[in-house]
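Dear Dr. H.,

I hope your travels went smoothly. While you were away I took the liberty of generating a structure for the chain from your last submission, since the lab meeting agenda had it listed for discussion. I wanted you to have the full record in hand beforehand rather than looking at slides cold. The sequence, exactly as received, is reproduced here:
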Amino acid sequence: MPGKKFRAASALVDRNKRYSVAEGFQILKKTADTVKGKFDQTVDVAINLGVDPKHADQMVRGAVVLPHGTGKSARVAEGRQDRVPR
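The corresponding predicted structure, in token form, is as follows:
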């Protein structure tokens, strides 16, 4: 059950509306002023690139460096069917 400040911050956002980047940052700043650091804010970004990842030349890969890290060691697992184990 969210608190009063969280509800006040979420009341500023219409979840069914698509905002431009500038509008999104304005709302983000307003919500930051509303809650004044009582919880960690997160931002989800969805980008439609219009590429087909099945084609090798259209693969999109990226990495994000977190400012303080996650505090955990990273584990990587890969599962591929096109390679034969040796």
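Two observations you may find useful: Helices lie at 4-10, 21-35. The longest helix spans residues 21-35.

With kind regards,
E. W.
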